[in-house]
Specification:
The protein is elongated and about 95 Å long. α6 packs across α8 and α7 packs antiparallel against α8. The protein has 449 residues and is α/β, with parallel strands linked by helices. α13 links the parallel β5 and β6. The longest helix is centred in the middle third of the chain and has 29 residues. The strands form three sheets. Strands 7-6-5-8-9-10 form a six-stranded mixed sheet. Strands 1-2 form a two-stranded antiparallel sheet.
């Protein structure tokens, strides 16, 4: 979410009014001053809860002193060497001096939760826990934090107590395991907070190169989010008006001639203007069972580019062809694909009949400014492929681009008519992954600039 300087000032003024004592009021004040939609409220609330959450220290069994002030039943510490000093009433333990237990062991035995949490926070800062980015680093940072807290001295204390006071050693061992659990929780929380972006980038990079036709159901929504990111990136790259692009490049020769009367001082300028067509796209998508998933993401990407593509019409086919532009524009992605599939999806591909439907009803939509994109595996099930219609479409269009979700090695084998169709296409390329789909659409849009 984007936060402007003015919104930051408003938030700090609100915090100054409500104070920091009540966590819930502070959270609500930030949500009211910074979030501008329900989605942003959810995101900001989750970030607030995660950032300000403090892992609850684990408490081993026993009757340690709690917040109500009950006395601790921790066994007294036996002298493990040297003369013991006077007892420390704040810990409920004898002060064993240099030859006694270390500070971490005494902190654990006292079960002072606030002190343990503060020690973990201090050690986390010293271990640079905010640098964690990947889940594989959890063990490394857990070890660093424990080292900063003095785990080595604690282990030495355990060994000494095992020989001299087994009961207390067992008690301290349980508390040590609780400490390790607390540290693991702190590291896991930091990973969620600081490693989210890197984890998302890694996941997206894997998804970008994963075959679209084999995406697992649990990954579909993630892939749709990735496709929307790709669409935003393409919009940012191609839709921003630039003054130089609008007026062209400086024509030096004409500028000098125009300003000859002023000693060639360029009071008046002349520009080389180049007419650029806005892209007009007609997309024909095979939604038969073998390529339906790829078509889903392709149509989502195409219709996310309205700022770049001034005129786009989409059609879907398997046994016959229908226009689906209105469906995609008026419904959500899930609803649109369900509607399209209920009308023409999952049937056997019949390219000849589908191309014939397009020629009979919508051929007029193809002009010399139109790029026609066909997404399909070109497998005609040994029916008439309608190659002559593809030739006529190519003759009318600016370009004919065929995107095939199958690899090149399969083209022309079995019932594939790809090599025959390729004769009439300006561009033919495989398009099995999100990355290949992005490159293909980027090249198509860039051709108009």
């Amino acid at each position: 979410m984007h936060v402007s300087p003015a919104e930051s000032i408003d938030a700090m003024r609100a915090v100054a009014k409500v104070g920091l004592s009540d966590r819930g009021i502070l959270r609500d004040a930030l949500l009211l001053t910074l979030a501008k939609s329900e989605d942003e409220k959810k995101a900001l609330g989750a970030c607030f809860d995660l950032f300000f959450a403090t892992p609850e220290p684990q408490q081993a069994g026993g009757d340690a002193k709690d917040k109500s002030g009950e006395a601790s039943a921790t066994p007294p510490v036996q002298d493990v060497g040297g003369e013991p000093d006077a007892g420390d009433p704040s810990l409920g333990l004898p002060n064993l001096g240099p030859s006694g237990l270390g500070s971490l062991a005494q902190m654990l035995l006292s079960q002072d939760r606030a002190a343990i949490a503060a020690a973990i926070a201090t050690a986390s800062g010293a271990a640079s826990l905010s640098d964690i980015r990947y889940f594989t680093q959890r063990g490394i940072f857990s070890g660093r934090i424990l080292e900063q807290m003095g785990i080595q001295r604690l282990n030495d204390d355990l060994e000494t107590l095992t020989a001299n006071n087994p009961a207390l050693a067992e008690r301290l061992s349980e508390l040590t395991e609780g400490l390790r659990e607390n540290v693991r929780d702190a590291v896991a929380q930091a990973l969620l907070l600081y490693g989210r972006e890197e984890a998302e980038n890694l996941r997206n990079e894997i998804l970008r190169n994963a075959p679209l036709g084999r995406i697992e159901p649990r990954q579909i929504e993630q892939m749709r989010a990735l496709i929307r990111q790709i669409a935003r990136r393409l919009r940012d790259r191609y839709s921003k008006p630039r003054k130089r692009q609008r007026r062209g490049h400086l024509d030096v020769r004409r500028t000098l001639r125009r300003n000859a009367a002023w000693g060639s001082v360029p009071f008046l300028t002349a520009w080389k203007r180049r007419h650029r067509d806005r892209p007009k796209i007609v997309a024909l998508c095979d939604v038969s069972g073998s390529v339906a998933r790829v078509s889903d993401f392709f149509l989502l990407l195409i219709h996310s580019l309205h700022e770049v593509v001034s005129d786009v019409r989409s059609f879907a086919f398997s046994g016959h062809l229908i226009e689906v532009s209105d469906i995609l524009e008026s419904m959500s992605a899930d609803e649109a694909m369900r509607e399209i599939m209920s009308k023409v999806g999952f049937g056997s591909s019949d390219y000849g009949t589908s191309f014939s439907d397009f020629e009979r009803q919508w051929m007029a939509s193809v002009t010399p400014q139109t790029t026609v994109i066909v997404l399909g595996d070109a497998r005609s099930n040994n029916l008439d492929p309608g190659a002559d219609i593809v030739r006529r479409i190519s003759e009318r269009a600016k370009r004919l681009v065929w995107l095939n979700p199958e690899g090149r090695m399969t083209w022309g084998f079995g019932d594939s008519e790809m090599r025959r169709y390729a004769t009439f296409c300006n561009v033919v390329r495989p398009c099995a992954t999100a990355q290949q789909l992005e490159y293909a659409i980027s090249d198509i849009v860039a051709a108009y600039r």
